Amino acid sequence: MTKHPKTDPASTGLKYKICVSGAAETGHCGVDAFSLGEEIGREIIRQGCVLVDGATTGFPYWASKGAKSEGGIVIGLSPAVNQRDHIDRYNLPIDYHDLIIYTGFNYSGRNLLLVRSADAVVFGCGRLGTINEFTIAFEDKKPIGILEGDWETDEILQEIIDKSHRAEEMAGHIVHDKDPKILIQKLIKVIEKYKDTNNHVL
């Protein structure tokens, strides 16, 4: 028997997964980076989504803290093979998460799985790993939200877009804002628009 997705209980209630990408070391990010990170996390939950991150320190960590303060679900993808490896070798935290998936693929492999697992990615203040996750999201035509702030990351990402000679491909997929609430609102609209292809490489 064919079930209608709007009436079948097994097909309802799925939440969008929004990945937060940003620097694990935030000394260059400015005094507002932590509060903006927390607010991004809060808004992801307030607007009915699940937060996904790299189970790391810095900007994503503060986003996870904000998400948990709103009673939300936070899923981490670790570069480590298990919890001991995660803590002892990578020196990464386990708090502010509901579950952590240990990929065993180091940072580069973790980054690919992290972006692929999400319906959209938000980029805050970052470093090289953040740019790596951005290029994965860009190649996958994933909905992208860029948080503008007192850091250079937003400008660097925009320069990459401008010089990619492929900006037209991503028209409508990328949104910017300095207000976390508005940014997540914009991003959810992009997810809705492209939700049939969000988890597929085009």
UniProtKB/TrEMBL annotation:
It comes from the Bacteria. SUPFAM superfamilies: MCP/YpsA-like. It holds the Pfam family LDcluster4. This is Uncharacterized protein. It comes from Candidatus Doudnabacteria bacterium RIFCSPHIGHO2_01_FULL_49_9. The lineage of its organism: Bacteria, Candidatus Doudnaibacteriota.
